[in-house]
Amino acid sequence: MHILPVLMVSLVKISMGQFTREAIYHSMNDRGVYLPDDYNSDLPPAQGAPVPVDMRLRVLQVAKVDDIQQTMTVEMAVGLSWTEPRLLFNNIFDWDERRSVKTNEKLVEHLWAPNLHFLSTEQIDKISTLKNSGTVTIFRNGTVHYDSHIRLTVGTCFMSFKNYPLDDQLCRVLSVSHSNSIHEVVLRGSISYNTEFQRPLQYNLELRHLPDNYTFMVMEDAMYSVQGFEVKMERKLLPSLTKFYIPTQLLVALSWLAFFVPPEVISGRMVLLITILLMLVNIGISVESDSPPYASFTAAHIWLLGCQTQIIANIVQFAFVLFTMAKEEKVKESGGRGLPLSLQSLQGGSTVDTVSLRNQAVHAKRKELKAIVSKVDKRSLMIFPAVCLLFNAGYWVHFILAK
Fold it and tell me: How many CB atoms lie within 10 A of CB 46?
């Protein structure tokens, strides 16, 4: 009479997911493994020696790199393995044939497990399957293996945009067993990365093992084992070439056509140069809106400033040409007044008429000024491309070496 209510209560507890200690014993024993009565999940398996924990990280993809927030989002499978010698096994089962049993991940809460913490975690989500988001596999030799899929956003990115858009960045995923010092738990890891599942990003990615000086951490006078990986990110150059570098360089080259426009066609030459300058300013505004925040000049700013300076220098050159032409026109209108005259003796000792001498001086001065205008345009046609070539050489050599 009293057995039926007790049995019903036990069934209700298990069906509702309330894993009491008795329910865990029954659930694990059904799978051929159970816990001893004096099992303490707060104590690591090995006393007096560090427990080696194998941490296998299988990176599925780097889902997102946020330059503004300086974060990286990674989807990966995390596998942890350690030996638990305190487990007891039911020899009724044929372990030679089965070799391992799989249990629900909630059971790991009642086993000892390394308490891992990902440093500078902005957000962490478990990627669930239809039934659960993780599995625990127990082998006959006492090895416990835990598998889970997570989506992790970390802020351990060390980003400097001084060389943007020719920059390289570095992000690290660091996990530490902060509940147990390095004298209790030692993390040993491996990483794998299949680019087949990688979605296109603004960077080319390279996953690497952590440097030796990042495999441990000192906190509160204790040393802890650290495991993870780092991602070296090299920004893709092609988008910047097509959207920024090539268009601006073509505009600078287009400004050289102004030297072929006769100086007398003032409106045509000025419209060309001012239009090109405004287009460069517009491209600069667009690039600035897409650029990550940075307190100082970036490589993009230096390039834009160099291109705009070349256009402004072209306008200044044309202003000098206009000033020279205005001076030549003033000489023409003044009729040579104010010009130095030299008396020349004709045959027979006669002196050249003053008007004739003045006309000759005006003609010579106008010819001299026109020659200056022509010479300035011709030399500018050689100097400006040469300066542009030197600027390009210095710019690309500097920033490629900086990488």
Answer: 15
Cα separation, 137 vs 105, whole angstroms: 9
Give the angle 193-196-197 at the CA atoms, nearest 5°. 80
Model confidence pLDDT, tens digit, residues 201-249: 999 999 999 999 999 998 877 899 999 999 999 999 999 999 999 999 9
Dist. CA 2–CA 213, nearest whole Å? 64
- Eight-state DSSP code of residue 241: I
Q: Which residues contact 113 (CB under 8 A, 6 or more apart)?
A: 80, 82, 144, 146
Provide the sign of the torsion angle of the four alpha carbons 217, 219, 223, 228, taken in this order. negative
Contacts 24+ apart (CB under 8 A), 38-45: 39/86, 40/112, 41/110, 41/111, 41/112, 42/112, 43/112, 44/112, 44/180, 44/184, 44/185, 45/82, 45/83, 45/84, 45/85, 45/86, 45/112
pTM for the whole structure:
0.76
Facing residues of 203 across strands?
A: 235
- The Cα 315–Cα 152 span in angstroms is 53
